[in-house]
Amino acid sequence: MEMQDKIKLALAALIVIAGVAGFYMIPEAHGLLRPAAFAASLVAGAGIVWLSRPGKDFVLYAQESVAEVKKVVWPSRKEAQQITLMVALFVFVLALFMWLVDSGLTWLVYDVLLGRG
């Protein structure tokens, strides 16, 4: 990362920190000024980050991610219902199996090995 980008990122961080500090330093009586100052610092910080190489790389990554999501083939309503039913059935069978194993081990340990009834 170039020195210019490091300076831009540090400046953006300082602006956001100043916005947070300003939020707490402005009296509550000023109403919307507090959140507006914080929001302005976030927008200014994001603008500075956007002008840096890492910011531009992030924007490109986000654009490519959106393009990839558009390529996804989503299941139909019927397919989604069938998959959901299969998952629910599997969870039920697994829960039943675990209950049987737990009950069997409890019986084995307490009734058979320890002789408690």
Throw out a few tags for this protein.
117 residues, mainly alpha, 2 domains, elongated, transport
Strand pairing plus helix content: what structural class?
mainly alpha
Average residue-wise pLDDT: 92
Number of structural domains: 2
- Assembly annotation: single chain
The portion of residues forming beta strands comes to under 5%
Query: Span between N and C termini?
Result: 71 Å
Tell me the helix content.
over 70%
Number of strands: 0
Shape: elongated
Task: List the helices and strands in order.
Answer: HHHH
For the report, how would you describe the main beta sheet? none
Query: Over the alpha carbons, how many angstroms does the gyration radius reach?
Result: 29 Å
Function: Essential subunit of the Sec protein translocation channel SecYEG. Clamps together the 2 halves of SecY. May contact the channel plug during translocation.
Pfam families: SecE (PF00584)
GO molecular function, one term: protein transmembrane transporter activity
Subcellular location: Membrane
